[in-house]
Design goal:
Number of helices: 13
CATH superfamily of the largest domain: Aldolase class I
Number of strands: 35
Radius of gyration: 27 Å
Oligomer: single chain
CATH topology of the largest domain: TIM Barrel
Number of domains: 3
CATH class of the largest domain: Alpha Beta
Helix content: 10-25%
Largest sheet: 10 strands, antiparallel
């Protein structure tokens, strides 16, 4: 080949590469995202939604107006919201980012596309990253912001993980809100002109008052199993800000990332700042379809030990509270073992030497056994658990201390405190937050867990609590000019500790409890096996809270416990069967003192636990179909889980209000194979005689178009109550 032909061929190849680089398509089995990445120009968004055929993708590229930047930066168009804003050392507050490179790397289950943007003047680079999964419909996006200057810092004022324009129409937003003991309440609202902001400023926990996850229904108010829905979840454990700007254009502008309030970041020369991932999904099967995408992705790729079934446990908190006694721990272990449980967890109150944990105002950080309460220590409890054939777990609050503690006396500089200001105290009037920006604090927390597991490797479960927010802003470890890094560095330290623990103890079950449901987020869950949905165990209120939680999190991660009646939080009287039926719809456990139960009540729980073991793989690993929402105020709620093969399913029905001669809708099922025939059988039954359809066989088509009649009350009027519930097991014949 002569030189001229070689040069011509090289030129053609280069041109082709450039043209290809202009059109970026990121795909999953059911989704497409189209971007325009012309070298030397702004990165543009074109399309996100249902997967496009090649011909359709070409037409979309040719006809859709690539009007908006895929990652808008502040500076040259100051009139619109920006995902990124920075100030250079010379005071320049503008950015001009142009496409420099597009690179894709492929692994077995995913591909990562990095689109490098460079400022035209300053040595400042942003890599906009997209991770697309090949087995689930999820795309994660984040940015890697690089200060290429060898000497001068850059101040980051905004640093969102991602941006998504959503075409205006009849778009509704589904989000979660609440407060302690009332978490994960579902809010559904149409998007109207103006700015909608969902944010958190707790500093430690981030899901009590709001959630870093939302859904956009593109066809009006969300329906559960039909309609187009976009789901978004920021995978971050700290303060966040989700903003939807509905401006004068034809679009809603969605931004998600770390909350920049009081958190401007000084990017050192040569430093890279990586934002947390924003997970995006799309479904044509309504809100439940988007939920199923989150659940599959979470179980397979995010949740610690997401492929392992969770144990049925008894937790001691509502049984004895802080009044831990060895004899009662033995009694509670024996009771849960006799009912078929698999694990006992000893909650708060077991520790303290110089300062004993009698009330909630002392001893945090002094992680030594109180020998007055437990003469034979943790080793004695482990021996008893082994004798009974169950596992043992224990409660910790690693990130906290009390001013009344040996830890605080030795290291008062380890707590978060504003310089020259008084300590702001939390629970018990003495609680303080340890400064996880400090590597010595990180080592202390890791060593505490490591020492425990080294000495007692038989421990199966750690309940990790966090009962206080960051009340005042200040770090004894961070320099004076970097105090604004506190919130970010706290969670970097937290993540570092979690990574170290998981690396050494990958099989240890760890629950994220944070005053209840304060840490239900996908930033935490790679290091935790589950979370405590709420400190409120009232079964009726749990129907609502667990419904909202299920929008983004699978049942396997949702701890739900049978508790006492009247409930310790609400004082509501709820029948035991109802309490069992609600808890069985997630990770089943108990939060009660069994010695206060009657033999009949223990027997009912024994049967419920046995039934749960039958359906546990379906509930914890199956596909969720929400059917009738408690938020629709129809007097009842219903959902079901279906296994991947559609051979088995479990249907839940709960009455949520009671009026005489009230009529409820007949519930049609979903997710079944219409061609299969299913035998239906009621579980956890208390009726005197089986229901008419119990044991009968119906086609999947009939169950999904007609359903079966659910009685409003039990036939056994001695067990009658205003709240009834039913659990139905379906098995293909």
């Amino acid at each position: 080949m002569n030189l001229l032909r070689k040069l011509s061929l090289i030129a053609c190849i280069a041109t082709a590469a450039t043209v290809m680089a202009q059109n970026v398509e990121i795909t999953t089995p059911g989704m497409s995202m189209l971007l325009q990445a012309k070298q030397g120009e702004n990165l543009k968004f074109i399309y996100f939604g249902n997967k496009l055929a090649a011909a359709d993708a070409e037409v979309v590229r040719a006809t859709e107006d690539a009007r908006y930047d895929a990652y808008p930066a502040y500076g040259l168009d100051c009139s619109r919201e920006a995902a990124l804003a920075a100030t250079f050392a010379d005071g320049n507050m503008s950015l001009d980012l142009k496409v420099a490179d597009v690179a894709t790397e492929t692994a077995a289950d995913f591909s990562i596309t990095r689109i490098t943007l460079r400022d035209k003047v300053y040595p400042f680079t942003v890599a906009v990253c997209y991770k697309a999964y090949s087995t689930v419909d999820m795309i994660e996006t984040w940015t890697e912001i690089i200060n290429g200057d060898k000497k001068k810092p850059v101040t980051l004022r905004k640093f969102a993980s991602g941006y998504l324009p959503i075409r205006r129409g009849t778009v509704w937003l589904s989000s979660l809100y609440g407060q302690w003991a009332n978490e994960a309440r579902l809010c559904e609202e149409p998007l109207e002109p103006g700015m909608k902001v969902i944010k958190n400023k707790d500093g430690v926990r981030n899901s009590h008052t709001a959630h870093a996850e939302v859904m956009f229904s593109l066809d009006g108010k969300a329906q559960e199993n039909v309609g187009r829905v976009i789901g978004a979840a920021l995978c971050y454990s700290g303060n966040y800000r989700l903003a939807i700007d509905t401006d004068e254009s034809d679009w809603h502008h969605f931004f998600a990332g770390i909350n920049e309030d009081n958190s401007e970041y000084h990017l050192r020369a040569g430093e890279t700042f990586a934002t947390p991932a924003l997970a995006l999904t799309f479904s044509n099967e309504g809100a439940s379809g988007a939920s199923r995408n989150f659940h599959k992705w979470g179980r397979k790729y995010k949740l610690a030990n997401g492929d392992k079934l969770r144990k049925i446990l008894l937790n001691s908190w509502e049984g004895v509270y802080l009044d831990i006694k060895e004899a009662e721990m033995h009694q509670m272990m024996a009771d849960i073992a006799s009912m078929g449980g698999e694990l006992f967890v000893m909650d708060d109150g077991w520790f303290g030497d110089k300062y004993r944990r009698i009330k909630d105002n002392s001893s945090l950080g002094d992680w030594v056994v109180d020998k007055n309460k437990l003469p034979n220590g943790i080793g004695g409890l482990l021996a008893e658990a082994k004798k009974l054939g169950i596992k043992f777990g224990i409660w910790y609050e690693p990130e906290m201390s009390n001013t009344v503690s040996e830890l605080f006396e030795a290291h008062p500089d380890w707590v978060i405190k504003a310089p020259k200001r008084d300590l702001q105290l939390g629970r018990g009037g003495t609680q303080v937050v340890l400064d996880l920006a400090n590597p010595k604090v990180q080592d202390f927390i890791f060593d505490m867990i490591d020492d425990l597991m080294t000495k007692y490797p038989e421990i199966d479960y750690v309940k990790w609590d966090a009962n206080m927010e960051i009340k005042n802003h200040g770090s004894n470890y961070l320099t004076a000019d970097n105090q604004s890094h506190l919130y970010i560095e706290y969670h970097r330290g937290f993540e570092s500790v979690c990574k170290r623990i998981r690396a050494k103890y990958p099989e240890l079950t760890i629950q994220a409890c944070a005053s209840g449901g304060g840490r239900a987020n996908w930033g935490v869950l790679p290091y935790f096996d589950e979370f405590w949905v709420s400190d409120n165990t009232d079964a009726l209120q749990r129907v609502y809270m667990q419904w909202g939680t299920s929008y983004f999190f699978p049942a396997i991660a949702m701890a739900s416990h049978i508790s006492a009646s009247p409930n310790h939080t609400t004082a509501r009287i709820v029948p035991l069967k109802y309490r069992c039926d609600v808890a069985m719809s997630a990770r089943l456990g108990m939060e009660i003192q069994p010695k206060n139960m009657s033999d009949a009540e223990k027997d009912l729980c024994r049967r419920a636990i046995a039934d749960y073991k039958t359906i546990r793989p379906i509930v914890q690993m199956g596909d969720l179909y929400r059917l009738i929402s408690p938020y629709d105020h129809l007097g009842m709620a219903s959902l079901m889980y279906v296994d991947e093969s559609k051979q088995k399913a479990v249907f839940f029905w709960w009455k949520t209000e009671h009026f005489y001669n009230q009529h409820f809708p007949r519930v049609t099922m979903a997710g079944l194979d219409p061609a299969k025939s299913y035998r239906v059988r009621e579980l956890n039954r208390i009726d005197e005689k089986p229901l008419k359809w119990d044991g009968k066989v119906f086609t999947g088509e009939f169950l999904m178009t007609n359903g079966i009649e659910i009685p409003y009350n039990y036939s056994d009027w001695q067990n009658g109550c205003d709240l009834s519930s039913h659990v139905i097991y379906l098995e293909a014949q």
